[in-house]
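hey so u asked for the seq, here:
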Amino acid sequence: MRILITNHGLDARAGTELYVRDLALGLKAAGHAPVCFAPVLGEVAAEISAAGIAVTDTLEGFDAPDILHGHHHHTTALACLAFPATPALFVCHGVLPWQEAPLARFSNIRRYAAVSEACRRKLLDAGIPADQIVMRLNGFDAARFNRGEPAANDADRKTRALLFSNIAQPVDLLPFRAACAAHGMRLDHAGRAGKVLGAPEEELPRYGLAFAKGRAAIEAMASGCAVMLADYGRIGPLVTTANFGALRSENFGIAVINDPPDQGVLQAAIAALDWDDAARVSARVREEAPFTNTVADYLGDYAAILEDGPADASGIADEARAYLSAILPHLSERDALAGKLYQETATRLDRDRELAALIVRAKDDPSAMKDLLERARWLDPSNPDLQG
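ran it, structure tokens below
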């Protein structure tokens, strides 16, 4: 079976990009012929291509595949328009990103998959019939993440913690680092602003505790780590055998990550960590969440949606018009945000230039120094050193 998988990009090592990689690898291992399409290619695309899987940034000149597996509405729409008779499945990976909304409504999309209960609710709220929605929970590559010895058995691992996030900046680490230090643990940071883990399967088994969400949290658990959910400047619960089922149904994602990263709360959570329970969680993940299970579920979906034969492409023009109407407000919003960012950046640069000139003048001009102090008080009115 030839399956065309779409994604908004295959450049950065991030959630859906790596999901596409693992899906394509799994489909190939099962004897099928996946093709990955994204308008933006890069590191992940190269990794997929090196595995002998076709990758493209254009649909021009392609023979129609047997199945469309769509991620993100704009690339899914392109594929549906290019191959209007090919049956399709659309996967919703998140509730916040604009690309995840089911705006592409084409006759060939016969089934919708949600990776969490929150995503399922998003699809229902968008008017997708419940009988067209299936749950397809995330997983991990058991062949790659094959070092699942629990941290409970390794004293050195219990002294090392990892914040695994593409969102976090160095300043965001402060409460985590202080809480870990209070328990004799060193904190490292993996992500775009930290160390990019090209081979997390090699790095994660070095840590005892991981702060992560979603796929990263699953991979950390599979590697034997205790996991506390965290990302987007928020924290959630420690994953335990008691809450595992509820948290897994939400993909260990933002729907259950709601609290500010208070140092005291973090310290209390680390103090309550039960390493033996974390080992049981790790064993459960390794039993329940291999990504081969997800691939098998998708193959079942493909077989089901192929049963009704080719899609009816007679209404493709009306469906394309409806999609453009649905996407226009989002494009206008993004255009307005880009304009606002441009204006704010230009204003900030002008102020920085004025401030630089004022600093130079203040070296020899008392009145300029007075103006400089006034500017500083305006920028930071709570600073006691600037009062008086």
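The chain has three domains: 2-139+291-314, 151-288, 333-386. The CA atoms of residues 88 and 109 lie 4 Å apart.
lmk if thats what u needed
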